[in-house]
Amino acid sequence: MNEETLKIPQATAKRLPLYYRFIQNLHNAGKQRVSSAELSEAVKVDSATIRRDFSYFGALGKKGYGYNVNYLLSFFRKTLDQDEVTKVALIGVGNLGTAFLNYNFLKNNNTKIEIAFDIDKNKVGKKIGQVHIYDLSELQSRLIEENISIAILTVPAEVAQSITDSILETSIKGILNFTPARLNVPSSIRVHHIDLAVELQALVYFLKHYPNDTENSQDETN
Ligand code: ATP
Questions:
Q1: CoA-binding domain: from which residue to which, for each copy (predicted)?
Q2: Fewer Cβ within 10 Å of end Cβ, the chain: N or C?
Q3: Is 96 annotated as a binding residue?
């Protein structure tokens, strides 16, 4: 994201890609304007939150008119750096990593896995989808050469920290960590943590303890 988003609260920033996807659909369908109630229904975020989020970037809807779709679209495209593809590296081509390599992230946003790494000799040298798998010994040099800014970690938890340490001095600015390990990084690097087992466990807990809580039935914090 570019500098303009720095003043936006993080919770709002996290919802921007969600809004962007829906606004894109509206634009493609030829719609000129959208109300916060319509947006709310589609993205499952309450309309007061949407109005507050949008007010941060100066999109002030008019009563009885709503928001201008073209304005929103150009704002999101600029703010989310959609005019530029962000290059991503995947480290650890196991079951989860393989699924990511087969998934077309470009379908919904401008990120692309350019390159993958593993230590398994049976995987190194092969290609999954369009992505080459390289030996881990080439990690730093290739990240720098290709100017990769994001790393997805799908390695065993035990090696997550040492791999993280080894990419600190490269072009990497953000890590999407799918391992259960909590990572120590300097403040110049941002880590987002997605632990699928923990998410499942939390869902099981909520189903059991809040079975009738329909008001808060969508978790928008992630
Ligand atoms: P698989 O069935 O292929 O083993 P998995 O997801 O169950 O997949 P994991 O043990 O989680 O297996 O390992 C994920 C991947 O990370 C594997 O391809 C493994 O070879 C790779 N890997 C293990 N250690 C490292 C490391 N230090 N650096 C890079 N990749 C590694």
A1: 81-182
A2: C
A3: yes
What gap in Å lies between CA 208 and CA 211, rounded to an integer? 6
Domain spanning 3-79 has what CATH number?
1.10.10.10
Run of H or E including 114: strand 111-118
User: Given phi > 0 = left and psi -120 to 50 = alpha, else beta, which region is 61?
Assistant: beta
Domain residues of the chain, as ranges? 3-79, 86-198
Residue nearest to atom 27 of ligand 1 (CA): 159
Level-2 CATH architecture, domain 86-198:
3-Layer(aba) Sandwich (3.40)
Its pTM stands at 0.76
Each residue's pLDDT tens digit, 135-161: 999 999 999 999 999 999 999 999 999
- Distance between Cα 200 and ligand 1 center (Å): 22
